[in-house]
Write a structure and sequence with these properties.
Elements: E1 23-26, E2 35-38, E3 48-53, E4 59-63, H1 67-70, E5 81-85, H2 94-105, H3 113-121, H4 130-138, E6 144-147, E7 150-153, H5 162-179, H6 182-198, H7 203-206, H8 213-237, H9 242-256, H10 263-275
Antiparallel strand pairs: 1-2, 3-4, 4-5, 6-7
């Protein structure tokens, strides 16, 4: 069944049990057969989600809250966080992943059942088996509550979601670009670098199951804006390493969106910059 499979019927299983049964990993140091066998961790409580990544493959960073106890630890130190690709989670199918993305992208406003249907099925209607898919989302560790007909994730902030942090940085950069000034230019470079570090891949291509493509496409549009602003600020700063970086950014922009409104001015600025002898 799309969006959950047989695992959706077992709503009481903790997230640790959704990673499948015993797995085998090739490891020459493990034994004479070169196989290390890994058994699922006996985690007593669900993991805590510390971040969600949407700009690229769908991943969550989790902390296994029962790790120290189950391994006989003293409890004096925090258990380590680890990345968990959601593509490998049993029982989280395309429709459940689409619901997860829609809810995470709308922490403040939440989503109505019809809005979830638009993300999951491309139609503004209540999706088939919505509660089963939401149960799968909850088993990842997200707390999803329903109030006044709106579903919201309760245990994440915007800083914990790469796409939302990227959006906030974009808005800050847009304001800095409008303000101008040398101090604003330095801040623009710093914030641009922070935003670009968040980008791991085009979310439209990465999340083909998410039917509201317009919502995801805006991140790619914002990326090109940020690259243009960043390159322009580097040209203005004129440090030794800035020429190569500005040229590389211009080439990336030409490939991604050659008709972008800022490309002509940026091409002229970079061309003039490169033709001027370096200090």
């Amino acid at each position: 069944m799309e969006g959950g499979g047989e695992a959706l019927s077992d709503l009481n299983r903790p997230p640790a049990d959704l990673q499948g049964a015993d797995a085998t990993v090739h490891d020459p140091a493990a034994g004479p057969d070169g196989i290390r066998r890994r058994v699922r961790e006996p985690i007593n409580r669900p993991w805590l989600i510390s971040s969600v990544r949407l700009l690229g493959n769908l991943e969550i960073e989790v902390t296994d809250t029962g790790l120290a106890k189950t391994h006989g630890g003293t409890g004096s130190g925090e258990p380590p966080a680890r990345d968990l690709p959601l593509a490998g989670i049993t029982g989280l199918g395309p429709l459940a992943k689409a619901a997860l993305v829609a809810l995470v992208l709308n922490l403040r406003n939440g989503r109505t059942p019809a809005q979830l249907g638009e993300a999951m099925e491309g139609q503004p209607r209540v999706p088939t088996a919505l509660q089963s898919h939401l149960s799968a989302v909850r088993r990842t560790g997200l707390i999803v509550n329903l109030r006044s007909g709106i579903y919201r994730v309760e245990n994440l902030s915007r800083d914990q979601v790469d796409a939302l942090r990227f959006e906030d940085l974009y808005k800050e950069l847009r304001n800095l670009k409008s303000a101008g000034g040398e101090e604003d230019s330095a801040a623009l470079i710093t914030k641009s670098e922070e935003a670009l570090q968040l980008w791991s891949g085009d979310p439209v291509a990465a999340h083909g199951y998410f039917r509201d493509t317009f919502t995801l496409k805006k991140f790619s549009d914002w990326l090109v804006d940020i690259q243009c602003w960043y390159a322009s600020a580097l040209v203005a700063r004129d440090q030794p390493e800035d020429r190569e970086t500005a040229t590389r950014l211009l080439e990336q922009i030409r490939i991604r969106n050659p008709s972008h409104r800022l490309v002509p001015d940026l091409q002229r600025a970079v061309g003039t910059y490169l033709s001027t002898p370096s200090a």
